[in-house]
Amino acid sequence: MNNSKARIIDKLYLALIYLFFYLPISVLIFYSFNNSSYSLVWHGFTTNWYHNLFQDSNLWIAAAHSLLIGTLAATMATIIGTLAAVSLYRYRFMGKNFLNGMVFILIVTPDIVMGISLLLLFSIANMPLGFWSLLLAHITFCIPFVVVTVYSRISGMDKNIFEAAKDLGARESTIFRKITFPLLLPAIISGILLSFTLSFDDVMISYFVSGPGFEILPLKIYSMARLGVKPELNALCSVTFTLTLFLVILSQRFTRKSS
Amino acid sequence: MKSDNTFRNISVSLISIWLGIFALLAFLLVVLLSFMKNDSTTIFSWQFTLDNYAALFSSLYALVFAKSFYIAGACTFFCILLGYPFAYILARKVERWKEPLLLFLIIPFWTSSLIRSYAMVAILKTKGVLNNVLMHLGIIHHPLQLLFTNSAVMIALVYNLLPFMILPLYANLEKFDNRLIEAARDLGAGKIKTFTKIILPLSLPGIVAGSILVFLPAMTLFYIPDLLGGAKALLLGNLIENQFLLTNNWPLGSAISVTLTLIMGVMLIAHWLTSKNRERGDFL
Fold first, then answer.
1. What is the dihedral of CA B101, B165, A225, B235, to 10 degrees?
2. Cβ A244–B123 below 8 Å, yes or no?
């Protein structure tokens, strides 16, 4: 039959969906350079909105907070998550299946449920909402993604390597340092980058566990977005999107290397 | 060798204690609170009650549940409708450029859904891009009121969640054994029959996995109705948010969250049943 015709329809369909995915964000970036506050008509190129953005000291503080939380949370989650993935693959221990199931369930759990759970936990523990509550929450929701990323890499590895090292007298900590860690490194880097991205973009969980004294970027964006479309916000969203885009592409490079 | 267990013990305890406190204990507190009486000054009082669950059947909350189910169901339906052909073509028809195409699919998965929702506002505004394009093309003569309607919420939800349907479907269809199709053809099955009898049933686990990843967020992404919707309490997510941050009825908010978790449980069982004899965990 019309094989070539079918092929063109296939390609057209893919193109349309990709257009649907990327048109809105492209429009956003385009208008962040438009020299007009409200109009949709192109009034010439300007970097005014970006300039205004960089003048806003509150925004800098929120961005610094987000960077700090993102870096710390990604590091901690990657350490805990990597050790967990290694244990789940290599060892037998009590409650292993339970832990496996919990990681899986946490990935599909709606963010809002995790958000209010942590809010409740922190209020009962009498913990003020701010830096620490955010950090603990972000580490928690990043861990399952690190476990999955690292596990998918380690499960492709030959178990005999570990046995051989053991037979030659290596301790478990030595095996981790000399064999597991170097082999898992691409997946670990990918995990840390993805965790940072998740933390840097999170709205749902942070919304419940942040306090007025410690503002972070996504919540700032949310409160601005509620007031409507503003060119400065277009600029801010463009910057944030570009940064996370870069991180995702980087992390995918490492994931591909590892598979 | 005693000392050799140290590494193992530390690794296992670390993850167990962390998730034990911040995931399990935290959620059990929510379950506990959902059976407590509301007290506006101290969050709750130590009195067992089923009132919070009974309240969910009152007309006010039942309506939000029904609406939320309807919206999330429709969103899931549209995602399958748009996503299935996409995943099918990408997994089985595309030979070149596969890696970049996949990358462009993964990017929306990880980048901020808030920013993408905000970008949708600019498209759907009365003086926004969509209206301008439609007017230029002469399809409409007056701008449509899209923003602050339920249609806007639906468009933004599908826009945000479609990648979450496509990825599990793609993973499923990519592993598909082509010999099954050849066998069906050899035995005289036509194109449609091959699809409905072979391909569709075998891709069911992918459809179920994608539906879980779409349906649950579609009920809870409270900032989407907040930015694009007309009605304030459209989704279960808005309802929960209000109970915790606005009306301060935490026990009721907890009961809604527990119900939501039960819905998730049912969906996970469905996933488990459909993927019984095959590999599990190819979720992401």
1. 170
2. no
